[in-house]
Amino acid sequence: MLAVPDRFQYRLMRDVMVAAAVLYCSLLLEVAAGFPLNLHYSFLSELGAKDQPTSPYARAMDLGSGVLLALAAVLGRPAAKMHRDVAGLLAGAAVFGIGTMSDALLPMDCAPSLSQACREAEANGQVGFALFLHEATSTLADLGSIAMSIFAVLILRRLGWRGVLAKVVAVLAAGVAITQVWLGIEVGLEVLTGNDLHPPGLLQRVSVLLVCLFMATLLPGLRQAFTR
After folding, report:
1. DSSP 8-state code for residue 2
2. Contact present, 54 and 47 (Cβ < 8 Å)
3. How far apart, in whole angstroms, are the C-alpha atoms of residue 46 and residue 109?
4. Fewer CB within 10 Å, N side or C side of the chain?
5. Residue 117 neighbours by CB under 8 Å, 6+ apart
6. What spatial distance separates the first Cα and last Cα of the chain, rounded to whole Å?
7. b/e per residue 195-209 (b: at least 16 CB within 10 A)
């Protein structure tokens, strides 16, 4: 017998998470746009910069993904009342969703890796506040995804790692946490030292891909946490 959420609510939540994963995968937009960014030096968030032709699409995808993540967190509230680790997972999803929505609503004015004028304006502090807001919302989204990955592993540990899909989710969760923290350290060191270290583009794309796969498989892999 299913616990709350009921069968329909679980399936709806699962489908919402899969849709959020697809919309969050800005790699798809980058491919469709013909790879307009530098794969080694550009961040995918630059697709949403106001001066880029991909901006409306990138921002719509982020906004949609953020709304769906928040919706999934609301749909899972009945299950969250049963276990603290599930509550932590859904809280992480809500933070991730809010950060992603904020990314869409507070984009960068220009793409620094593609424009010398943008880099000069950034160095002179002319786009500093907009860049600061974007970095803050991106950090919030990253923290939410890391929290989701940590609580997913805690849930799987409680459930006993049952099934192949559960093990896949555990591997993806570990990949998300490692790549997100690694990327955060690299970016933080660059900000503190003022020096360009290892180009972050490829690492970020790997991280985004892992996040998308993690979100898409999360609910099927954690089905036992939402059913009895």
Report:
1. P
2. yes
3. 9
4. N
5. 110
6. 6
7. eeeeebbebbbebbb
**d(C-alpha 225, C-alpha 1), whole Å:** 13
Whether residue 112 is preceded by a cis peptide bond, meaning omega within 30 degrees of 0, is no
For residues 93 and 69, the answer to whether their CB atoms sit within 8 Å is: yes
pLDDT band of residue 92 (cuts 50, 70, 90) is: very high
CB 85 within 8 A of CB 158: yes
For 46, other C-beta atoms within 10 Å of its C-beta total 28
Cα–Cα distance, 129 to 137 (Å, whole number): 12
pLDDT one-digit tens code per residue, 206-226: 999 999 999 999 999 998 877
Token pair for 12: 């709806």
Chain position carrying tokens 């680790």: 85
Cβ(199)–Cβ(42) below 8 Å: no
pLDDT tens for 116-165 read 777 776 666 655 666 778 888 999 999 999 999 999 999 999 988 888 99
Give me the mean pLDDT over the 15-36 stretch.
96
How many Cα neighbours within 13 Å face the side chain of 38? 10
pTM, entire model: 0.89
Q: DSSP characters for 121-153? A: HHHTTTTHHHHHHHHHHHHHHHHHHHHHHHHHH
Please check whether residue 176 is in contact with residue 146, taking contact to mean a CB–CB distance below 8 angstroms: yes
